[in-house]
Amino acid sequence: MHIDFSGRTIIVTGGTGALGGAVVKSFLDAGARVVVTYVIEEEVAPFLERIVEQKYVDLYRCDVRLSLIHI
Q1: Residue 7 falls in which region: left (phi positive, over 0), alpha (psi -120 to 50) or beta
Q2: Cβ of 12: how many Cβ atoms within 10 Å?
Q3: DSSP 3-state assignment of 17?
Q4: Can you give the chain as a three-state secondary structure string?
Q5: Which burial class, exposed, middle or buried, applies to 27 when counting CB atoms under 10 A from its CB (0-12, 13-18, 19+)?
Q6: What is the pLDDT of residues 12-31, one digit of tens each?
Q7: d(Cα 60, Cα 38) in Å, to the nearest integer?
Q8: Could you tell me the sign of the dihedral formed by the alpha carbons of 20, 37, 50, 32, in that order?
Q9: Contacts of 53 (CB under 8 A, 6+ apart)
Q10: For residue range 29-71, what is the model confidence (pLDDT) as tens digits?
Q11: Phi and psi dihedrals of 70, rounded to 5?
């Protein structure tokens, strides 16, 4: 089954890791623009090497765990 994500933007937190990178690649292959947040700087270079042919990826260093509000 193939879902078309053309024209959509997807946010993947932790997308530079092994599992997150596979998720990012799947969304890219489905036509999405992907916004990736990461914490570990050392994961960025290998991530970019794996998806070098892809054009619609934005990377932001952001620890989303710090943004959570506990009620």
Answers
A1: left
A2: 21
A3: coil
A4: CCCCCCCCEEEEECCCCHHHHHHHHHHHHCCCEEEEEECCHHHHHHHHHHCCCCCCEEEEECCHHHHCCCC
A5: buried
A6: 988 998 899 999 999 999 99
A7: 6
A8: positive
A9: none
A10: 999 999 999 999 999 999 988 887 767 899 999 877 765 565 5
A11: -100, 125
Nearby residues of 21 by Cβ (< 8 Å), 6 or more positions away: 15, 47, 50, 51
What CA–CA distance (Å, rounded) separates 56 from 23? 14
Structure tokens at 44: 């960025």
2: Cα within 13 Å, side-chain hemisphere: 7
Question: Which stretches does DSSP call E strand in the chain?
Answer: 9-13, 33-38, 57-61
Furthest-apart CA pair in the chain: how many Å? Answer: 43
Q: Whose structure tokens read 């024209």?
A: 7
